[in-house]
Design a protein that fits this description.
It is a single chain. The protein is globular and about 50 Å long. The N and C termini lie far apart (48 Å). Helix 4 runs parallel beside helix 9 and helix 5 runs antiparallel to helix 6. The chain has 221 residues and is an alpha+beta fold. It folds into 2 domains: 87 residues, Alpha-Beta Plaits, CATH 3.30.70.100; 116 residues, no CATH class. Strands 2-3-1-4 form a 4-stranded antiparallel sheet. It contains 10 helices and 4 strands; from the N terminus they run βααββαβααααααα.
Length: 221
């Protein structure tokens, strides 16, 4: 079993949503695109928390890489405030919150893919990505009637290099199957991670497009 580590960081004078977007674009994106980082970790993913924080989560197989990774990230994250750090510990992340334990590797693959796609959006037209995410959240299942793939495919294709690579590698069907996974009302649907990373929150059915747009500071027109 490999090791799991989570770093949670924010700016020294954080601003809701704005700090998250800036951290992902200016700090996290260069890390995830760094060949050295990719060479010492097995899987990774990002999430946003508390309207101001960003979490970087990694899995490391080789124990001797833990010290190397820790020194690397201390340097890369040095201009940010460390809110918390968890691990290294040896544990899966799927069971019981996101599905059965035998889906662990599928879950990690999906988390890394959705993180890489979200990085492309942060480095591109993030406002457009936010608008699309808000609209599709309320118009696709389970909140609406559309299939997520029908609502999001062209947006992903036009704005994410990584999504194009999934198509080229015949992995896009597998990606959308993972995107749609929801095991029960007691587990978190996997599409949650797309909305969390792009918006900094995951709207509830009680929200509206307009309410969420106003909260995160975008207009839907």
């Amino acid at each position: 079993m490999d090791y799991f580590i989570r770093w949670q960081v924010t700016e020294k004078l954080p601003q809701s949503f704005l700090s998250q977007d800036k951290i992902v674009k200016e700090v996290i994106a260069p890390i995830l695109n760094d060949g050295f980082f990719k060479g010492i970790v097995n899987n990774y993913y990002i999430t946003k928390a508390n309207y101001t924080d960003v979490r970087l989560q990694v899995f490391v197989v080789v124990e001797k890489n833990l010290k190397t990774l820790d020194a690397y990230l201390k340097h890369k994250l040095s201009n940010l405030s460390l809110t918390s750090k968890d691990g290294p510990c040896q544990q899966p992340v799927v069971f019981p919150y996101y599905g059965p334990l035998d889906k662990e590797q599928d879950f990690r693959e999906y988390l890394q893919n959705i993180s890489d796609i979200a990085i492309d959006f942060h480095l591109g037209n993030l406002d457009e990505a936010k608008k699309t995410a808000v609209m599709c959240r309320f118009r696709t299942k389970p909140y609406g009637v559309l299939e997520p793939r029908h609502c999001l495919h062209m947006h992903f294709l036009q704005n994410s290099r990584h999504y194009g690579q999934l198509i080229e590698n015949n992995m896009v069907d597998r990606f959308w199957e993972s995107f749609a996974i929801s095991y029960s009302r007691l587990t978190t649907p996997w599409d949650h991670f797309y909305y969390n990373i792009i918006l900094g929150l995951d709207p509830s059915p009680a929200d509206t497009e307009e309410k969420v747009a106003a909260m995160i500071g975008i207009t839907l027109e």
